[in-house]
Amino acid sequence: MADYCDLAPGHPYHGPYHDREYGFPVADDDTLFERLVLEINQAGLSWLTVLKKREAFQTAFDGFQVARVAAYDAAERERLLGDAGIIRNRRKVDAAIHNAGVVQALQAEHGSFKAWLDAHHPRSLAEWTRLFRRTFRFTGPEIVNEFLMSTGYLPGAHREDCPVHARALAHRPPWAAA
């Protein structure tokens, strides 16, 4: 998002995320899962709200360890729905737990969540969205777009004149290699 490059610099929450994470490739499955859960939770809310709650999300979801979240039972679901530090939306909590199980299945079949993403790259946003809707819960076009931009699978995280753009490119995001 072009205006993010104007909004983020110097901001206590947007700045660090914009400068060090947004648009950079991600290799770790737990981090990829975290980004997917955060993007799902942003739906209908501001990204600032999610960033402010990020630490609470990390604690509530056991550091986004895929195997741990996939094993959550009804008691864990209720614990999450009672946690005022996170976004307590039943559909979003259910999607996070369900999607952790999906990521585990992808890991078993492809070796990792990242390998699954790599196997489907490159695709258009419409193709990615269809794939994500068939595979995961709560993944519409905006969530898919932001998830894939934030993890380097789609371009557009930074304007070309943004200083972070060159740094992100130096990390060889998948979209740049396509």
From TrEMBL:
**Where would one find the signal peptide in this protein?**
none
Instruction: Name the InterPro entries on file.
Output: Adenine_glyco, DNA-3mA_glycosylase, DNA_glycosylase
A UniProt-annotated Pfam family: Adenine_glyco
Protein name as it appears in the record: DNA-3-methyladenine glycosylase I
Organism of origin: Modicisalibacter tunisiensis
**Top-level taxonomy:** Bacteria, Pseudomonadati, Pseudomonadota, Gammaproteobacteria, Oceanospirillales
